[in-house]
From TrEMBL:
Protein name stated in the entry: CYTH domain-containing protein
All residue ranges annotated as the CYTH domain in the record: 4-168
Lineage: unclassified sequences, metagenomes, ecological metagenomes
InterPro entries per UniProt: Adenylyl_cyclase_CyaB, CYTH-like_dom_sf, CYTH_domain
Cross-referenced SUPFAM superfamilies: CYTH-like phosphatases
């Protein structure tokens, strides 16, 4: 079996409309409409995955559910790591099944995601409770080319995961680090 490798970076934006306009001006085309993603990060009580900088995630993505394992990040200016992902039928059932295997939800977060594509590069606009980010996923060459076309540079790259960004945001504001969800109101 070949190892799947994910290569991505994030770029912060002031708001989703500014991000969307920049992406379309750079020649990308819409791929998937805006929808809510609800992510559940799982680990055992002793956090062995976190200690090894790995992630086990169950994602509700519109009407779809995904189970994903992400390995530790490799060094470099872009976020590069092993990624194994499969579609599953029922996110809630998978979370329950993982609980039977000793994995509990350690963190839950939400974002609204809209996807675009240019060639083989996938570009997303992610609206989170702590800001808007454009994520570029693809080859190093495609990411660098799109970065330039967005009038950005590698110095703007954010390699941190959303949970890391969320936890840093909460800590900076002196609030408890808990799940990061949009208000239900």
């Amino acid at each position: 079996m070949a190892v799947a490798v994910e290569r991505e970076i994030k770029l912060p934006y002031a708001d989703p409309n500014t991000a969307r306009r920049a992406i379309l001006a750079a020649g990308a085309r819409p791929l998937r409409a805006r929808r809510l993603q609800d992510d559940f990060l799982l680990d055992r009580e002793t956090d062995p995955l976190r200690e090894h900088h790995c992630t086990l995630r169950v994602r509700k993505d519109g009407g779809q559910a995904l189970l994903t394992f992400k390995g530790a990040q490799m060094s470099g200016e872009m976020k590069v790591r092993e990624e194994l992902e499969t579609t599953v039928g029922d996110a809630g059932l998978i979370v329950d099944l993982c609980a039977r295997l000793g994995f509990q939800v350690q963190f839950r977060y939400q974002k609204y995601r809209e996807e675009f594509q240019r060639g083989r590069l996938v570009i997303t606009v992610d609206e989170t409770p702590v800001g808007t980010f454009v994520e570029l996923e693809g080859s190093e060459c495609d990411i660098l080319r799109m970065t330039t076309d967005l009038r950005r540079s590698p110095s703007d790259f954010v390699r941190d995961s959303y949970p890391t960004l969320f936890k840093r945001h909460a800590t900076a504001r002196g609030s408890d680090v808990s799940d990061l969800l949009f208000d239900a109101s």
